[in-house]
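Subject: Sanity check before I submit

Could someone independently write out the structure tokens for this chain? I want to compare against mine line by line before I put it in a report. The sequence has 299 residues.
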Amino acid sequence: MINKWVIDETGVGIRLDKFLSEENEEQSRSAWQKRIDCGEIKVNGNVEKSNYKVKSGDEIQWEAVETAKDIIYPVDMGLQVIYEDDFLAVINKPSGISMHPGSGAKEETLAHGLLHRFKKLSKVSGEDRPGIVHRLDKETAGILIIAKDDITHEIIKDSFSRREVYKSYYAIVHGKYKESKSIVEPIGRHPVHRTKMAVVNDGRKAITEVFPVEDLGNYTLVKVDIITGRTHQIRVHLAYDNHPVVGDSVYGPKKTHSKFLMLAATTVGIKHPHTGEYLSFKTELPEHMQSFIRKNSKR
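---
Independent answer below. Compare away.
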């Protein structure tokens, strides 16, 4: 099985080992360096060094060794389909489901559910990531766009790279969020805890816009728009701003106040990859967030 990434403008100028570690959380930067040094990773078909600076359009690929545990199979997860046509589908991902198999996902994943629900799916991201163009964290609920063929996948991926896709979230955060603000801080791999992301000087540009919606006493319901799409961006930026997402045991307080992460992708807007028609999809907040709001609302 061949895994592949094509560099867009957001990755230009980053070291090869750094780019790979930021794009794939399953391996550390040192692990990627060893694979690069062994010649397992190729850029445009050539073996490069770890300090190679990636360029726009570079194709990074390697052959993954498939084992029995890597083979995914159809599983009926009862996925909620918001929209579907011959080229793409839009689903409402539940909280608590990983996107695809990996070192951190030993259970059945969204990829298993997609194989059951749809007859055809793109394979651009690999056999173990059918139809998956973009991602949500395991504990984040909400809207995902699924590609049914490779051409559609590439067009949608380019739309994300050019920041032409509108993405809006709702989150419940600790404390009182009194006014709207833009958080513009670079995000990269945590210098010590390599499985985490953090605001770091040499990170990649990240922009998050936050709008308070409702005062919930010790908490605030906020609307969040992301201009960029970095790993864990919303959670990292809100924690950096001293308003971590409720239920976030990674970036928030150890006492999470909820067994659920209070974050959901509620709106996505995109031009149809083939017709050009602008499509906008919305979903209600998941029940665990609605219940938390009812419990803490001052209304």
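---
OP: Matches mine. For the report I'm noting this point. Residues 1 and 64 are 5 Å apart (CA to CA).
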